[in-house]
Amino acid sequence: MERQEMILWVQKSSQSANGSWFVRGLVEDPSGSMGFICFNAESVARVKDLTSAVPVVVSGQIQADRYSQDGKLQLLADFIDLIAPGKDVSHLLPTTTKDIEEYKKKFIKLVAQVKKPPLRELLGEIFSGERWESFVRNPAAKRFHHAYIGGLLEHTVDVAETALAIVASMPDIDRDMVIAGALLHDLGKTEEISSEIGFSYTDSGHLMGHITAGVLLVEDAARQVQYFSEADRKSLIHIILSHHGDREKGSPVCCATREAVIVHYADEINAVLQQFDETTDKDAQGWSFNKMLGYMIRV
Ligand SMILES: [Fe+2]
Ligand SMILES: [Fe+2]
What's the CATH superfamily of 4-91? Predict the structure, then answer.
């Protein structure tokens, strides 16, 4: 492989029996990722103490990884150098294949469907300015699902549309609350995950997680909106708090309203079905072990 720009994660740096250092990890660009190993002393010295993903220029040979049981390929890197800070490397970040502008339009249409003025005003208040900019750019996850630029917007719109499809077949559901809850359920991810290289967790992400961060943002915004009812505030906060479904999955409370159940399952359907779309490694019959689910799926 000729020299090319990629993102590099060092996962392990160790010394061989002869005392020389080598590094192992992952290299990635929008087309995919691959394990790498490097024994080249100068290159190793440049990267062995890195603790986060960095943009690099790398070259080497692609070969079978002899430690892999399923015949995976890896890059035997013979050259690695860091790309100078400040250089635009946005082309290296994985990005949604969907049309972001189209998704923005869909999002705005969903907000417009909310009939209660204070609830609609709350959404307009939150999804504006810098928050909107980071919302439409952010990935929805660091790994596992929609972990690419534009992923949070795409996931949120798809969850809201799935939730509305469920509502269409059911009576006695507060449709406004379902739309607002779906659009806000992962808002805290704008605080939790950085949209820079590596999509690392921010301090807020480590300290609070996206559920708490989302609740704080919505609480804060609800106080600014006139005539926002106490009942709506509680219902909306409940949807955010319970959207992971149960305590083992990080929700402090389980879904206790119809609207919360709908948003939770719409979220779950979207995240699980996305596993089928994002699977790249599969056997000849289409089977693949899915890390998020922890079992085999056929894609
Ligand atoms: Fe979530
Ligand atoms: Fe979600």
Answer: Nucleic acid-binding proteins (2.40.50.140)
Alpha helices in 91-245 (DSSP H): 100-112, 117-126, 129-137, 151-168, 175-184, 189-192, 203-207, 209-224, 230-242
Q: Answer whether residue 103 shows pLDDT above 70.
A: yes
Q: Where are the domains of the chain?
A: 4-91, 95-278
Confidence (pLDDT) at 69: 67
CA of 134 to the centre of ligand 1 (A): 16
CB atoms near residue 157 (< 10 Å): 22
Assess contact for 267 and 241: CB atoms under 8 A: no
Q: Distance from the CA of 38 to the center of ligand 1, in angstroms? A: 37
pLDDT, tens digit, 9 for 90 and up, residues 156-203: 999 999 999 999 999 999 999 999 999 999 999 999 999 988 898 999
Return the axis-axis angle of helices 129-137 and 151-168, rounded to nearest 10°: 90
- Taking only the tens place, the pLDDT of each residue in 112-161 is 999 999 999 999 999 999 999 999 999 999 878 899 999 999 999 999 99
CATH of range 95-278; options 1.10.10, 1.10.3210, 1.10.150, 2.120.10: 1.10.3210
Ligand 1 centre and the CA of 211: distance in Å?
7
Query: Which residues are within 8 A (CB) of 260 and not within 5 positions of it... i.e. 6 or more apart?
Result: 181, 238, 239, 242, 243
| Cα-to-centroid distance, 177 and ligand 1 (Å) | 17
Query: How many A from CA of 183 to the centre of ligand 2?
Result: 9
Query: What is the enclosing helix (H) or strand (E) of 82?
Result: strand 73-82
Nearest ligand to the CA of 183 is 2
Neighbours of 276 (CB within 10 A): 13
Residues belonging to the chain = 299
State in Å: Cα 162 to ligand 2 middle: 12
Sign for the CA dihedral angle at 159, 162, 164, 166 comes to: negative
